[in-house]
Design goal:
By secondary structure, the protein is of the alpha+beta class. It has two domains: 301 residues, Beta-lactamase (3-Layer(aba) Sandwich); 108 residues, Beta Barrel (Lipocalin).
Length: 459
C-alpha cells in the first residue's frame, strides 16, 4: 500500500510540473490532528528559495471568511446587529445607508458594485496607500447601486470594505486591530495584513503565467483599500488551524455558528448559498462543505471545511489563476485522503489492464485519445495515463489514486488546469463508461466519457 502522503505529494508535484505553477502549500487537518502538509516549488524562483511551512501567500478573497467569522464574534458579543441600518453606526452617513445592513454587506446583497477596469487603469487603486478603510470608500461609495439593497446577489469586494468601516464604527476600534485580536486568540500568528513595505521576511513573490507558458514575476501590489475582502497574507498551516477552530466550534456560541453558517435569503425570499462570508455548498461527491476561494495577481487560495467528515483543507498558490478551480483541486485531495483502500483481485487486475480509446460528451463521436491502465509488479494496485490526440505537449497526463471498487473505477487525472476526478463503471464486455469532472473557472463541468478497450495486436 502506498502511503497517502506519498500519493498526495506526487499529485501536487505532477500538477506543478504540468501547469507551470511556481509555488504551492497544502495542509489538511481534522478537529484536533494535522493529517497532511506539503510545500512545493519556489517562494522566490529567481533566488532559488523554496516554499517552506512558514511561507506567506496572498490569500485574496479568503480574507472574506476571516471577516465573516469576526463579524459573527461581534454579533455573539452584542456589538453589532446584522439587520440594523449601517448609518445608525456611522458618524458620516453613506448613500443608501438607511437601508443597507451589515448582513447585506456580508452576503453580497447590498447592491454595492465590484471592481471595474477604470479602478485599476485610472484610479490606480493597487498602487495607492489608503491610510484608513474610510478613505477607500471614495473609490465606489457615490456610484449607483447595481440593484436595490437586499434584492440581488452581486459579488463585491467593495461591499466588504464598507463592512469593515461599519465594524470599526460599531466596535470603536480600527478593523485591523479587531482582526488581530481574534487571530491572536486563535493562535494564528502567521496571518496578517499585507503591508508591502513592512519587514515581512517569509512572504512569497508573485507570479503569473504568460502566453508562452512561462512564469513571470509580478510587481508588488497594495491592498489597503480592501483589507476585509482581500488584503491578508497567511500560510496553509495557519488557515487549516482556522478551519479546525470552526470544526471544534471553539470561539463562538452555538447561536454564533448558526448565524455564520445559515444560508441567507434575498428580500424576495430567494435562498442564497452563503452565510456570513462563507460559501455553503456541496463538492463533486455531494459532501457538505463551507469554503471560500480567492484569486489575485500572484495569489490563488482556498479554505474548505467539511463539517460531516471533520476535515479542513487549505491550498495556497503564488501563481495567478493556478489552479483554475482551486476548490475542485482541494476537494480531489480530500477525496484521496478519504478513499478506502480495497484489495485488488488478480482477475480484476488482468481485466482492467490495457489500452482504451476514450470518447467525450457523445458516444458516437470519434476517440479523443487513449487511456492506458497498468498494474504494478505484484498486480496489487493500478496506475494509468491519458494520451490525448493529436499528440501535444504534455503528451501524457498521469492518472493517480486509481482504485477499483466492485464494478467502479475511480481516479484523478493530473492536468494543466487541476486535478480532475474520473469515475467509471465496467460493463459485461469489459468496456468502461462514466463521468469526467473538468475544471472550469466557476464550477466543475461534468462530461460523459466512454472507454472502449483495444484488442491487443499479436506479433
Amino acid at each position: 500500500m502506498i502511503p497517502k502522503k506519498e500519493i498526495l505529494d506526487s499529485m501536487v508535484n505532477e500538477y506543478l510540473q504540468l501547469s507551470g505553477t511556481v509555488g504551492m502549500s497544502v495542509a489538511i487537518a481534522g478537529r484536533e490532528t494535522l493529517y497532511y502538509s506539503g510545500e512545493f516549488g519556489y517562494a522566490n524562483k529567481e533566488k532559488g528559495e523554496r516554499v517552506n511551512p512558514f511561507t506567506l501567500f496572498r490569500i485574496a478573497s479568503v480574507s472574506k471568511i476571516l471577516t465573516g467569522s469576526l463579524l459573527a464574534v461581534m454579533v455573539d458579543k452584542g456589538i453589532i446587529d446584522l439587520d440594523k441600518p449601517i448609518n445608525s453606526y456611522l458618524q458620516k452617513p453613506v448613500p443608501y445607508g438607511d437601508v443597507i445592513t451589515a448582513r447585506m454587506l456580508a452576503t453580497h446583497t447590498a447592491g454595492i458594485r465590484h471592481y471595474q477596469d477604470n479602478d485599476f487603469r485610472l484610479k490606480n487603486i493597487d498602487g495607492k496607500r489608503y491610510t484608513t478603510l474610510e478613505s477607500a470608500l471614495g473609490i465606489f461609495i457615490k456610484d449607483p447601486l447595481v440593484a436595490p439593497p437586499g434584492e440581488l446577489y452581486n459579488y463585491t469586494s467593495y461591499g466588504y470594505t464598507l463592512l469593515g468601516v461599519v465594524m470599526e464604527a460599531a466596535s470603536g476600534r480600527p478593523f485591523l486591530r479587531t482582526m488581530h485580536n481574534m487571530l491572536e486568540a486563535l493562535d494564528m500568528c502567521h496571518t496578517e495584513p499585507n503591508h508591502p513595505d513592512s519587514l515581512i521576511t517569509d512572504d512569497s513573490q508573485l507570479y503569473s503565467i504568460n502566453k508562452s507558458g512561462a512564469a513571470v514575476r509580478q510587481k508588488i501590489l497594495r491592498p489597503s483599500y480592501k483589507w476585509p475582502g482581500g488584503g491578508y497574507l497567511s500560510n496553509a498551516l495557519d488557515l487549516a488551524k482556522f478551519g479546525q477552530h470552526h470544526l471544534r466550534k471553539s470561539f463562538l456560541s452555538e447561536k454564533g455558528f448558526e448565524v455564520l453558517f445559515t444560508r441567507n435569503k434575498t428580500n424576495k425570499g430567494d435562498t442564497l448559498g452563503i452565510g456570513l462570508g462563507w460559501i455553503i455548498a456541496q463538492d463533486s461527491w455531494n459532501r457538505r462543505v463551507f469554503f471560500h476561494n480567492g484569486s489575485q495577481t500572484g495569489g490563488r487560495s482556498v479554505l474548505m471545511v467539511y463539517p460531516d467528515e471533520g476535515l479542513t483543507i487549505a491550498v495556497l498558490s503564488n501563481t495567478t489563476n493556478q489552479p483554475i478551480l482551486i476548490e475542485g483541486f482541494a476537494s480531489s485531495l480530500i477525496d484521496v485522503l478519504l478513499q478506502q483502500e480495497a484489495p485488488l483481485a488478480s482477475e480484476d487486475s488482468l481485466a482492467l489492464s490495457g489500452t482504451y480509446d476514450y470518447i467525450l460528451e457523445e458516444k458516437n463521436m470519434p476517440p479523443r485519445g487513449e487511456i492506458i491502465i497498468n498494474t504494478n509488479g505484484d498486480k496489487s494496485s493500478l496506475h494509468g495515463a491519458v494520451v490525448p490526440l493529436p499528440s501535444s505537449a504534455p503528451s501524457r497526463l498521469p492518472i493517480k489514486a486509481l482504485h477499483w471498487h466492485g464494478q467502479t473505477l475511480e481516479g484523478k487525472i493530473i492536468a494543466k488546469e487541476g486535478i480532475l476526478p474520473i469515475l467509471l463503471h465496467r460493463d459485461e464486455v469489459g468496456n468502461l463508461s462514466g463521468q469526467l469532472f473538468l475544471h472550469d473557472k466557476q464550477e466543475p463541468k461534468v462530461v460523459p466519457v466512454w472507454l472502449k478497450k483495444k484488442v491487443e495486436q499479436k506479433p
